[in-house]
Amino acid sequence: MHIVVCIKQVPDSAQIRVHPVTNTIMRQGVPTIINPYDLFALEAALRLRDEHGGTVTVLTMGPPMAEDSLRKALTFGADRAVLLTDRFFAGSDTLATSFALAQAIAKIGETFGTPDIVFTGKQTIDGDTAQVGPGIAKRQKLLQLTYVSKIAELDLAARRIKVERRAEGGVQVLETRLPVLITMLEGTNEMRRGTMVDALRAARAEIVTWSAKDAGIEDVLKCGLRGSPTVVKRVFAPAARSDKAQMIEIQPATRDTADALVAAIFGGIAGIEGDLVELHQTL
Amino acid sequence: MIEERFDAIVIGAGMAGNAAAYTMASRGLKVLQLERGEYPGSKNVQGAIMYASMLEKIIPDFREDAPLERHLVEQRFWVMDDRSHTGMHYRSDDFNEDKPNRYTIVRAQFDKWFSRKCREVGVTLLCETTVTELIRNDAGKVLGVKTDRRGGAVFADVVVLAEGVNGLLGPRAGLRASPKPETVALAVKEMHFLPAETIESRFAIKGDEGVVIEMVGTFSKGMTGLGFLYTNKESISVGLGCLVSDFAETRESPYAMLEAFKAHPSIAPLLAGSECKEYAAHLIPEGGFKEIPQLYGDGWVVVGDAAHFNNAVHREGSNLAMTSGRLAGEAIHRIKAARDPLTKDTLKLYKQLLDESFLMKDLKKYKDLPGLLHTNSKNFFLSYPQLMSQAAQSYLRVDGTPKIDKEKKTLRSFIDKRSRLGLISDAVKLAMAWR
User: Fold this and answer.
1) Does residue B50 register a pLDDT over 90?
2) What is the mean pLDDT of chain B?
3) What is the chain A residue with the closest CA to B130?
4) Residues of B in contact with A194 (CB under 8 A)
5) How far is CA B230 from the centre of its chain?
6) Over B79-114, what HEC string results?
7) Are residues A139 and A33 in the same domain?
8) Domain-ending residue, one of B339, B365, B391
9) pLDDT digits (tens, 9 = 90+) for A198-254
10) Residues A220 and A131 in one domain
11) Which of these ranges, B5-9, B56-60, B366-370, has the smallest mean pLDDT?
12) Are B197 and B275 in a shared domain?
């Protein structure tokens, strides 16, 4: 069995800052991490491999420094890493990204064996669109299972897979045939700690690095900024709320201070004046 | 267990560990380096000033691509009371040279660069890998390490302990004592973001020029302590440190002291309008020469902060770390090249190289100073700063008091505070310790 897991290197959103003057996102010095949702996809893939045998290839598109994320994925236990990097890819939106990744997956299929399952995270924390996974599925003509919370069964002989999927108001149990693309939901598993052997292998592994041409992408007009119809009109930080905290002295606490407190907290909410009067009387 | 054997395992990817790993790998040894942090530098804290000549001895052309913040053209020493500072500033255009001597750095960036250099010469680096134990034979010889990863035992001819001031492995294995509260300082530091132009106009500098301020005074509440403020490219590092034993005794909180320090009328204007980016704390070895532990043994050496290498007077920590790492690496390479085993007997070469270097000579020179400042801390850090401020004010205010009376009054205030004998004794002791 061959599983491809698409991961993305993203800025650690917990540490991101907005420039106070220009309102642009300051990426300089912000540590990068593997998109947290992708880790659930990777762990799901590694578990399937451990149970059923086969190999896991991790794929990312990004600048050369995205190699760090791939190496980390190898430390967790992935077997092979492919970095798709080319200046043609700069400025890609989800349409151009899913095009490039789909082409790279086709090339991975030719080079290392056709994948039975392609995994992605539910979405990324920097784009939050959840479009790239389905985009790849469509282009690669893979059946798609999105928001999957559990891989219930995999029958390689029958080429069938059964999963649980979170849907509005419940859980769907879906069964379909391979090959398939799965976008994995957060909180569905916990990433393992790689063994010493994995860590050593990852530190020395040769990362397969492909340009657009290496990945067999001929139509570079579909890549990067030129292949991206999405336009970012403006990036801005919302204005800070002007509400100021206020201090209410409660020493000694009296009925009046209690009323003042209630009024301060609930006073601005329309339509509850009656309730407040009633509350005052009950107390 | 890992079948593969290494020539050396380096524990830690700070200045000392990187220097040792680089030195050995660039001479052809097979080196495995283990770092508990997520990436090299993620756990490392320093002011930080880096002295060029010690790094030049390891990577001569480091200026080409190392992430350096500013080269220093001005040094200010301040003696502060609660409302003033008495300062000495030294600034020279001579510091604007082709190869400047001192730079401010940001360790998270710098250590990543240093580590990349190590990997380029063949070091195998594993991050997020904590060494839990040294593997030793019955005779006590160190054979390798165990890590917190499954199947995590690895073996090598020698283990270089570059685990930092608070490293647990050495003390646990009985190779050295844990740091004592009276010989380590706790330093707290904040990084404040400011646009480069603001920093340049505020400190009257241009381009990559930088300024350093180092302070003593009443902010340390009578404890042995040092404050600092360093200009980086787009940020200012500000912090202070005092001995851990003093903190324990006075029950002062480091963060509250730092808040008061930042609000000091001499410091607040330098930080005005900035945004605090990070808060960090770290232990600094301050015991000097007398606290240096056994540095080598069968199959092991200890380098950097873990070996208590820090010159508190000249505030040299990381360059002693780099130097000790390099000398350990050179010694190990020479022993390996002679096809000798790495035993206590052969590894004494490391100690010999240290003794011949500036490192041990400097630490020996100041061996009595940490003790003196500690036992006299109230005078040096509380009384004298206040007296200096009073003297300066008395000199600068013109109010019709006869000058002779003013001088007498100043002298009397010093004597009242410390007695004639006390003053002379402090001066003599300081001179002796410095000599």
Assistant:
1) yes
2) 91
3) A196
4) 149
5) 14
6) EECCCCEEEEEEECHHHCCCCCCEEECCHHHHHHHH
7) yes
8) B365
9) 999 999 999 999 999 999 999 889 999 899 999 888 877 777 777 777 777 767 777
10) yes
11) B366-370
12) yes
pLDDT of residue B354: 96
Which residue is closest to A193 within chain B, CA to CA? Answer: B149
* ipTM for the complex shown: 0.82
**Pairing relationship of beta strands B184-193 and B235-243 according to DSSP bridges:** antiparallel
Residue A109 tokens read as 């299929």
d(CA B324, CA B315): 16
Of A31, A197, A203, the CB nearest to B151: A197
Domain of residue B388 covers: 369-434
Q: Tokens for B433?
A: 């310790």
Query: What whole-number distance in Å separates Cα of residue B37 and Cα of residue B16?
Result: 15
What is the number of structural domains in chain B?
3
pLDDT tens profile B300-345: 999 999 999 998 877 889 999 999 999 999 999 999 999 999 999 9
Confidence of residue B424 (pLDDT cuts 50, 70, 90): confident
Is there a single domain that holds both residue B418 and residue B389? yes
Against a cut of 0.80, is the pTM above it?
A: yes
Using a CB–CB cutoff of 8 Å, tell me whether B130 touches chain A.
no
Residues A251 and A149 in one domain: no
Residue whose token pair is 């200026």: B63
The answer to whether A199 contacts B2, with C-beta atoms less than 8 Å apart, is no
CB atoms under 10 Å from CB of A241, counted, come to 6
Q: Is residue A178 part of a domain?
A: yes
B258 lies in a domain? Answer: yes
Nearest by CB to B151, which of A29, A31, A195?
Answer: A195
- For residue range B18-28, what is the model confidence (pLDDT) as tens digits? 999 999 999 99
- Residue B406: inside a domain, yes or no? yes
User: Is residue B343 domain-resident?
Assistant: yes
Is the domain of B169 the same as that of B26? yes
Interface residue B400 vs chain A (CB under 8 A): no
Q: Could you say which residues from 335 to 374 on chain B have a Cβ atom under 8 Å away from some Cβ of chain A? A: none
Asked if residue A144 and residue A36 are part of one domain, the reply reads yes
Instruction: Specify if B185 maps to a domain.
Output: yes
Collapsed DSSP state (helix, strand, coil) of residue A76: helix
pLDDT at A283 over 80: no
